[in-house]
Prior knowledge:
Layout: E1 7-10, H1 14-25, E2 32-36, H2 69-72, E3 75-79, E4 83-88, E5 94-98, E6 103-106, E7 108-111, E8 115-117, E9 130-132, H3 136-148, E10 151-155, H4 159-170, E11 174-178, H5 191-203, E12 207-209, E13 214-219, E14 225-230, E15 235-237, E16 240-243, E17 247-249, H6 252-256, E18 261-262, E19 264-266, E20 279-280, E21 285-288, E22 299-300, H7 305-319, E23 331-336, E24 339-345, E25 352-358, E26 363-370, E27 373-380, H8 383-395, H9 401-404, H10 411-418
Parallel strand pairs: 1-2, 1-7, 2-3, 7-20, 9-16, 10-11, 10-16, 11-12, 19-21
Antiparallel strand pairs: 4-5, 5-6, 8-17, 13-14, 14-15, 18-19, 21-22, 23-24, 24-27, 25-26, 26-27
Amino acid sequence: MAQNNGILIVGASQAGVQLASTLRELGYEAPVTMIGAERHAPYQRPPLSKAFLQGLVTAETLAYRTPDFYGKHNIDLVLGERIVSIDKGADGAGMATAASGRKFAFGRLALTTGARPRKLQIDGAGLDGVLYLRDADDADDLKARLERARNVVVVGGGFVGLEAAASARKLGKTVSVLEAAPRLIGRAVGEATSEFFLGAHRSRGIDVTLDARIVRFAGDARGRVSGVELDGGQIVPADVVLVGIGVVPRTELAESLGLACANGVVVDEYSLASDGTTVAAGDCADIPNPLPREGAPERLRLESVNNAVEQARNAAATIVGEKVAYRMVPWFWSDQGDLKLQMAGLSAGHDQVVVRGTVSGEKFSVIYYRDGQVIAVDCINNPVDFMAVKTLLAKGLNVPADRAGDAGTPLKKLMAELEPAS
């Protein structure tokens, strides 16, 4: 089998770029090849549902690195090639084949393939104007259609859906959000945060329907979407429908190699897949919880920029022989119009909640506890509390619930009082 002594990174994603650059920072001298299926140089995805849709940034400004970065660091960036098959030996070396027939030899494999949108399989799903938002081409299409649209329907009340809904509303569109669950962003935040965002979006003119049961997408004689029919017979008018009901990790290549896959490519705390040689990082990876504790899930898949960056660094260290168990505080953010949500930690398994600040003033924090210990926080327009809790979690500190609710006392001050002397 033809091979070389370098690494092949499949997926020109945030994790892929970070993996390549960190390898060079760590002194890795063998060839580094990164392959991306898109024609665009690697770029930031989070702004696509926000600043890009609103015309505040251009595609060119979203690039992770300057055009000359890859050449300067001897990283062979190959764009517009989709890997469809990989042959690999027990030593980790092998050959990858693209849809074009082009072949890429490697000494070691890294998978940073990301995720794809989860599709809604109902009548009318193929109508023109039923869209998904995951990549730059999707964003270009949506942005162009928004310029001509009057009525916009967003299916899904998660982060991407609400961000896009807020963007469309800022552009003066009539916006409806249809969420199948009883709460907005219910998988990520607690009830207090969900309730706040429900009221905030409604007060800004977005029509939000919870427990929505969609029957079909209605279309006109030209095959264009014209509305969304609910189970009661109501049709919500729509010139554009954006479906945002989550993503599915891209594990097809990993599965073809016989790698263990569950909610992504299963890796250990060193980012190694089940074969012991391949590494996987970012949205495609099913990882051990990097902030383990009682009551928290043992394994999870984190769809966040900071996880893509930090786990890719972990994978790079593994490749150069500097294995360190992956540990970090998960954190996330979501900009929904003029509302900024920042989260640190994982609130799953909490048994107590403290609301700090005034919800009506749209600047507050929701702190989650388990057995008297802070485990996570949701901060709305409150970056100071976010940074404080993020630091608290990293240091293993705590602020008692009976003191955390006093918004007049900075959390940082409470932490300083409680931190043990060194």
